[in-house]
Known about the structure:
eight-stranded mixed beta sheet, globular, disordered C terminus
Amino acid sequence: MAFRRERTQLTELIERAREVLSPLGYKWHEQDKYFRGPKGGRLRFTYLERDADADAYQGHSYTRLYPEEMGTFPSEAPIKKLQATLRSGNSVPCQMKGTCNPGGPGHQWVKARYKLDGRPNQIIRQDFEFENPFTKKKIPKTRVFIPSRVGDNQFLGDDYVANLFQVGSSQLVRAWLEGDWDVIEGAFFDGWHPARHVVRPFEIPKDWLRIRSMDWGFARPFSVGWWAVVSEPHQTESGRLPRGCLVRYREWYGAASPSVGLRLTAEQVAEGIKHREAGETIASAVLDPSAFAQDGGPSIAERMATTHKVFFRPADNKRVSQKGAISGWDAVRTRLKGDEDGPMLAVFSTCVDTIRTLPVLQHDPLRPEDLDTEGEDHAADEIRYACLSRPWIPRTVTQEKGKTLGDRLSLNDMWKAQRPAEKRI
């Protein structure tokens, strides 16, 4: 069975299959979208628009699975479900062979599955061993990544390579020409730079304010972040952290695998939070507003507060700007950019899931000002809550250090700033 994320993506694949299979005697059945061979073999084509669409194939038997462009799947969950259909009663060897390119909503899980850090240009082999719980027999399995670049395809000439250079994006050219999985095309947070924003852990001064932010998840991952607010400029190996900078010094990312949650109860999560911040004083904590909803019983936030005294207040959930107000994503970008004194948001190098997920997030194709929620956006949402809980406005070129806001702005400037954007003349 060959499958893709969307129906329209199957068109070219089917046409290419016609060219190859028709001369071999295979007949195409349009209604059910499959080829039948002269000896009864079948090649089915399908699409999985939603992850739950994979459930329709439970109980089926296939000897081959061909996922095309795996990076278009936000989660590996549907592909893993279909792997359960690889079976044969006639001892025919079963395999899954897929294709993928850098980028797309599934970039991160594909990169993690095949261990593609460091721009590998070599075959990567992973050997696994599973035990049958009934027979206790050891079952070996192998996963192989075979890199293929434009230069490896003898049918693609110089003209095709020249066309790639005209796409206008140096990141995309690198990703396609070199097979570089460390390059992110169209990143939502294009201001993120590890050398600038990732710092080696240091001892947090006792007088720095500490806050907590959280994005709730059960079937999907939850994310908890602990932040320290720099009270006086602090020098690190990576650079200077200005006064007011938010430093993410700890995180707890509740994921069993990318986009799959730990399925912990509110009480279990609260216990974990309490254990991790033992001995600390948390001055403020914000949580995903949906966790305060009451549906026939106490809310998630109430259960955490009641059982383990882990308290939150509802976070500001503005994602994009409305009527001139600063949006959550603007708040994150503004802090990442910082000013001439340094970044206003930094992350300890131990916060691996933030460092892993934040740079690869993409724009929503239907709403470019927003984040594509099909990506692994849980840490990003939680960071947005933290940034909106501590608003920061950068100095402009005309604003001088040491002056109050009233000194820096004229009355006319303040009047313009308060008027709704659509009413300005």
